[in-house]
């Protein structure tokens, strides 16, 4: 029976590996066909998970409510309402007039809460891959979860090396994946440099955390000799080799972030570096194995890195008043307020935002460049509650670990 259970878990594990490796290869799911493949694989994954419900881990109450809320949000937005009631919802008056002008079909007395139901339905299907991966991952043994983290590190290394080679080879290099959105920047296989930077800036703190934990797990008091000789000897151990690999991967990720020339990516990597210092400087692996000197050295290293990255960030910076993102934030916030607390519907931002877009921006805006703001724009009060609940669970998890 144990072997059957092990084979069952391993099958799910390899399906997770397949999804993780496949996801970034074709513009990270920003094309219809790759996204359809990911949605199909997520359905297979969910069928395997619920094939043996007894094997599913018990979700905590907070996790259940959060997952249910995420799925419930687009479903509620697809709920039909009488046209008279629909027009009473916040922000619907102007769109009701637009529908009348374009010739709304006669007898259409019902409308979904979402302003663009097809986009909301597509958003519902797009939720399946991340939710399925989350449920499947927490049902894996710790060893498999760590292996999945290593897979993500491998993807980060591949994307970093590819993007650096793209940058070095120039625009005409065959290494550039045909991409009209990211051809002038190192973007790997992602849609643009900001998407690649977003992935790397999330991986970077995890690398630093494992580096700190690996160093902290070593017991220096069990080795004879001077304290600094013990620390040098640590590099010859298995844990020392792991720490060296983490350090090399971390440096590679930072270098790649710099060459993406993404201001947000560089700024958030600096923030991640600073937060990692706060979390791990005094608690490397549960105890400060390097003592006071180790803490001071950690502070010096991080501050040096921060100071070194600051001029790079400034080099790519512009006057915030000249940056179109501030105008996008302002108009997106206005749209979110006008449609609050209902929202326009998940996935509707590209279709609805042009109504609020400033005439100064002569480009198509498909995202708010602020996920939280876009969620509230689309989902209203329920999205805001889900954001706060997710942050609360995250902080609670850290409090338990700390």
UniProtKB/TrEMBL annotation:
Keywords: Ligase, Membrane, Transmembrane, Transmembrane helix. It comes from the Bacteria. InterPro entries: O-antigen_ligase-rel_domated, WaaL-like. GO terms for cellular component: membrane. Coiled coil: none annotated. It is found in: Membrane. The chain crosses the membrane at residues 12-29, 35-53, 65-86, 122-138, 145-167, 202-220, 241-260, 266-285, 292-313, 375-396. GO terms for molecular function: ligase activity. It is a multi-pass membrane protein. Residues 250-388 form the O-antigen ligase-related domain. This is O-antigen ligase domain-containing protein. The lineage of its organism: Bacteria, Pseudomonadati, Pseudomonadota, Gammaproteobacteria, Chromatiales.
């Amino acid at each position: 029976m144990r072997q059957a259970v092990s084979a069952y878990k391993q099958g799910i594990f390899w399906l997770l590996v397949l999804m993780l490796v496949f996801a970034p290869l074709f513009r990270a799911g920003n094309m219809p066909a790759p996204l359809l493949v990911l949605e199909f694989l997520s359905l297979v994954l969910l069928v395997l998970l619920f094939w043996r419900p007894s094997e599913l881990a018990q979700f905590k109450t907070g996790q259940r409510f959060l997952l249910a809320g995420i799925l419930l949000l687009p479903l509620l937005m697809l709920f039909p309402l009488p046209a008279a009631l629909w027009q009473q919802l916040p922000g619907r008056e102007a769109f009701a007039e637009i529908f009348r002008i374009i010739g709304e079909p006669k007898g259409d007395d019902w409308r979904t809460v979402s302003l663009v139901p097809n986009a909301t339905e597509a958003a519902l299907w797009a939720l399946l891959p991340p939710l399925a991966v989350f449920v499947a991952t927490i049902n894996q043994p710790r060893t498999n979860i760590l292996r999945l983290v290593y897979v993500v590190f491998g993807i980060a290394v591949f994307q970093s090396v590819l993007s650096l080679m793209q940058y070095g080879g120039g625009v005409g290099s065959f290494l550039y994946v045909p991409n009209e959105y990211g051809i002038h920047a190192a973007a790997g296989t992602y849609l643009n440099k900001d998407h690649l930077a977003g992935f790397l800036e999330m991986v970077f703190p995890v690398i630093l955390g494992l580096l700190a934990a690996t160093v902290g797990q070593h017991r220096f008091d069990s080795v004879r000799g001077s304290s600094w000789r013990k620390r040098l000897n640590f590099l010859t151990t298995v844990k020392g080799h792991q720490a060296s690999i983490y350090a090399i991967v971390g440096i590679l990720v930072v270098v790649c972030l710099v060459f993406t020339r993404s201001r947000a990516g560089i700024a958030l990597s600096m923030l991640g570096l600073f937060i990692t210092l706060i979390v791990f400087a005094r608690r490397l692996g549960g105890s400060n194995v390097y003592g006071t000197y180790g803490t001071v050295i950690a502070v010096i290293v991080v501050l040096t890195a921060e100071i070194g990255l600051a001029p790079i960030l400034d080099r790519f910076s512009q006057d915030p008043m000249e940056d179109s993102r501030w105008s996008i934030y302002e108009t997106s916030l206005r749209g979110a307020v006008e449609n609050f607390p209902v929202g326009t519907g998940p996935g509707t931002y590209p279709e609805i935002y042009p109504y609020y877009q400033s005439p100064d921006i002569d480009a198509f805006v498909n995202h708010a460049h602020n996920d939280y703001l876009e969620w509230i724009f689309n989902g209203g009060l329920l999205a805001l509650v889900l954001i706060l609940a997710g942050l609360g669970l995250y902080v609670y998890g850290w409090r338990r670990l700390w």
